[in-house]
Each structure stands twice: as C-alpha cells, then as structure tokens.
Specification:
The chain has 7 helices and 6 strands. With 171 residues, it is α/β, with parallel strands linked by helices. The protein has one domain: Rossmann fold (3-Layer(aba) Sandwich), CATH 3.40.50.
Length: 171
C-alpha cells in the first residue's frame, strides 16, 4: 500500500530540530511514517535556513534530503499560491487574517496535490479551506526542565469548498 503524502510545516521541523525536543519529535515521525511520506517545500527549507549558520543549514538540508520529499517552488505552484492569497483576501472567513507567505505556499501545494499537512498553528490553514483530520500531542521538557505539550494538527484541504470559493470570488 502506497503511503499518503504529508506536508510538514516549518514550525514542526523547527521544533524537531531543537535539541530538547528532538527525541519527542523523532517518536512522532516514527509513528507517522507508518502511514505517511513526508514532504517539504522549497519555501519551508528557506524559512528554516534563513536564521541558521553554515553548520545548522547543512544539518537542516541533510535532514530534509534524507527524510523528506523536496518540492521545488515551480512557476505553477507560485501562480496557484498567488491566486490562493488573493482568495484569502476576498473571502469573508479569511479577509482580515494575516497568513504568512510560506503558509500560503504550503496550503497551495496541499490543495493542488491534494495532500494533508501537519502544523502547530492551525490558524494558518483556516476553515473553510482546511479540515482537521487529527490532533496529536507531543510532550517534552523545556530547557528549564518544565513539562511542555505541543498540540499538532493534521489538516486536509476541503477541495470542493475551495473550488466553490475560487468560483464565487472569481479567482
């Protein structure tokens, strides 16, 4: 049976690459990889490496290369992302939301493919365009040894509704 694609948001990878959280996220990835093949976009890689020195950029790039399917930022993807951004500006449910460029690009890929995505911030992938499929809690110790729990969301695009919104808003 072929594994489903799961687009991994930058915030998930950022947590996974933080030393005190790595072990907990490795366990999460082991469990998820039974069902999913992980995907990362070029923009996510860009976001992760922007504030990294040479050593950390190499680690990030190596991690992505060995553990994920990498999707380049093609003209087709970027064109669709720009149309989605326009739709978010026009739709009453997202008109006043500030959704980052990387989240819009990831949303566009998720909708176009279609595939699920995993994120810590489900507000960046709002209804009516996405639906929650699963909610996962990841526990770890903070740098000051406090118990921390992250809530992660697996979301899937609502393709029929998105198509209708594109038509209704003449995108």
């Amino acid at each position: 049976m072929a594994k489903k694609l799961l687009l991994v948001d930058a915030n998930i990878l950022s947590h996974a690459l933080t030393p005190n959280q790595t072990g907990s996220y490795v366990e999460l990835f082991k469990e998820l990889e039974k069902e999913y093949k992980f995907v990362v976009t070029g923009y996510t890689q860009y976001e992760l490496t922007c504030s990294s020195d040479k050593e950390h950029r190499q680690k990030i790039n190596e991690f992505i290369r060995h553990n994920m399917v990498y999707v380049e930022l093609s003209d087709v993807l970027m064109n669709f992302a720009s149309r989605l951004f326009y739709l978010y500006q026009k739709h009453p449910g997202t008109k006043h939301m500030r959704i980052g460029t990387g989240d819009i690009i990831n949303a566009a890929f998720s909708i176009a493919k279609p595939c699920c995505l995993i994120t810590i911030d489900n507000n960046d992938h709002p209804k009516p365009f996405f639906q929650e499929v699963d909610r996962i809690r990841v526990k770890y110790k903070s740098k000051k040894n406090h118990n921390v729990t992250d809530t992660l969301y697996i979301l899937q695009p609502d393709i029929p509704n998105t198509k209708e919104c594109f038509t209704n808003h003449e995108v």
